[in-house]
């Protein structure tokens, strides 16, 4: 772009004449050109430049100050600094930058500007006489760049929120992304910091470890090379790691290709040390049972003694399924009395399902059976989830004398897993609902808004939805007080609350659906009042009143918005997004009756809905 602009700026320096300015207007409409005259402090804008600066559609001459007034407040200081530097006879005499301009119509444009200053005189008399300026409209580019940045930030936040440690490699095995859990792991273990830094050769680190004889590193290296080469699509392996504190930890690494053909790889490392510890504990318990079996072959009495003092829930039963021995933990796990010795297993547990009796018969036939998670519905109506093992024990003659049952109550662990799954399902459900609402807002907004204002209007409406979401999140989705919701949606008019905006009504805690629906409606009513209604002048007032009542169809809730003192109203020529939100969406979402009256003295909006559709459920 710089070369193209320089070529155009280095043409005839006599463009000040009106004939040459007409030629200037004939330049490609995609390039806006302007000439600044420092001798009379004026500027000439081509028609394209006038349009981009938001000053009109035709070429014009105007004071420099009028051009400078269009500079965006946040960019004005830097643009002015660049201009002053270019006007310095000892300076470069030109500059190039991107900045925003805001015209009288309040529309913002991003411009990519190059300015070349021409000087006259020599020595101390040298001074700027005029300048040529060329600009491109790069608003779409900036908008796309911002969207890309926001998308990248969202992806980064999602990655950083994951409990797994994530590393992303490009097709050459170079680290291109690392999430915060993996960075934290690197900081806590200095030896791996270099290998996990952006731009590091991940495979090189694997090769170094593999050369030292580390078998897990060799396996990881081979698998990753196969993934990057397209020979396989997925890799999963467990490996140990000795951390900086000297403790051995276990991880499972899952690696998957990011696409077909030559592609990168995403790796996740999950700490499975607790599971490994539990497995080791289970192996220890299983080993204890195997030792008990060996003891049984030698001496049944020694086996009984062992079971009596076993640290786990263990019971020894004879071939008739009568208790021979049991541990204290067995009694504790099932809430049994010590007097069960000699009693039938099935008398103690009359609720035992037939399938478990079948398992016992198989164990008495010599099989060893296990289950990691099995449901046991107790006679008192409670449910236990058990991990168990049933195996035969042998008498002194080497025959099956009965079975030994080992069990572990995993009810609490399963309950936690179900809670986590339910939470994930709820988060997924709410996220989908929110996305559906956002999509509806976008569709309805674009139908009634010109493309230039679409982004601003959509942003305001999504911000209104976000304000309702913030209140719901703050309350852990337990509901939102209607008064707090109204104040949040009318926060732009906070100085008017209590003076020109009056609220009156009892405490009323809304559910999430009502909060979202009424939040959007209040936002639209407030925006309409500020533009056309009671809040568009200095004397108008808005009264917002709500109540709960007993009706023929059951309890109901009523919300009324009444404006007075504003300009005389006339009904709109067409129904737009505001009508859909304040009337149609409210009717559908809350099964409500909605009345909207554009009375000349002020707008009146009233919603009546079944209380059950509005109020939050008590926790």
Automatic annotation (TrEMBL):
Top-tier EC class: transferase
Stretches assigned to the PAS domain: 44-90
Catalyzed reaction equations: ATP + protein L-histidine = ADP + protein N-phospho-L-histidine
InterPro entries, per database record: PAC, PAS, PAS-assoc_C, PAS-like_dom_sf, PAS_4, PAS_fold_3, Sig_transdc_His_kinase_HWE
Keyword 4Fe-4S: no
Any one Gene Ontology molecular-function term assigned to this protein's record: photoreceptor activity
Keyword Flavoprotein found: yes
Gene3D superfamilies: PAS domain
Coiled-coil regions listed: 406-433
Pfam families documented for this protein: HWE_HK (PF07536), PAS_3 (PF08447), PAS_4 (PF08448)
SMART domains: HWE_HK, PAC, PAS
EC number: 2.7.13.3
Keywords annotated in UniProt: ATP-binding, Chromophore, Coiled coil, Flavoprotein, FMN, Kinase, Nucleotide-binding, Phosphoprotein, Photoreceptor protein, Receptor, Repeat, Sensory transduction, Transferase, Virulence
Residue stretches making up the PAC domain: 370-422
PANTHER family: ETHYLENE RESPONSE SENSOR PROTEIN, TWO-COMPONENT SYSTEM SENSOR PROTEIN
NCBIfam families in alphabetical order: sensory_box (TIGR00229)
Protein name, per record: Blue-light-activated histidine kinase
